[in-house]
Amino acid sequence: MRHRQRRTAVLLLLASAAGLVLIDLARGRPVELRVAAPEPTPTTAASVVPAAVALRPTSPSPEPPSPTPVAVATTFPITGPGTFRYADSTGALLGTAGTLRRFRVATEDGLAQDAKSFAASVDQILGDPRSWIAGRQFRLQRVPRSAPAEFTIFLATPATSERMCAAGGLATEQYTSCRLPGQVIINVARWLTAVPDYGAPLAEYQAYAVNHEVGHQLGHGHERCPTPGGPAPVMQQQTLGLKGCVAYGWPYLDGRRYAGPPIP
Known about the structure:
Layout: E1 11-15, E2 19-24, E3 29-34, E4 84-86, E5 99-108, H1 115-126, E6 138-142, E7 151-156, H2 158-166, E8 178-180, E9 183-187, H3 188-193, H4 202-217, E10 252-253, E11 256-257
Parallel strand pairs: 5-6, 5-7, 7-9
Antiparallel strand pairs: 1-2, 2-3, 4-5, 8-9, 10-11
């Protein structure tokens, strides 16, 4: 007596981006089960990055009022044309005593942040009561390109800033900012993204970047972290690591000049 053989249907479950597919291996016919696609995740608007003063790490005294934040772009090109647009207005007089030292502000063509907004950020930083004017040795004022000035603060792409710094013998590898006589060169990548593990808001790093390079222009050299866990001196190379200190972007703390041991 002959026995009829039964075919056992084996179903293979396959997953795909569009849904689930069942394949009947016995019959070789796919059976598709559609699954509803997941709901799209809502996106949020890009954050507005304040462009100047932020957190003060350690100080029992009240904070000075923060200026109105200035929105900045968060994307930037790596290379640029090497030409610059200057802020043509005259800024407020910063400081109350001492020799007047004038400076210009310029941004490389092609950057989303224009010279006017960058100049506003620089004015806010250098005009802060924790900045260099606190020493009452000099005042600072931004002037247009047509006016005499001691130095210019440039905001440049990584490639352009590297070329400018290399012209003075400084190697930045498209990463750090630098200062040459009469030129404070801020790398836009650092200006907009700071550095990994900085441990403070972007605005604190921006204050550090400007105050550090302007500090070189004013005659200050590099310093070391004086006390692990304490604020980093503004003339410490904070971009290359805090070395146990806490991020701090200002040369004055509690109304007094704050510095670390000098590096020969």
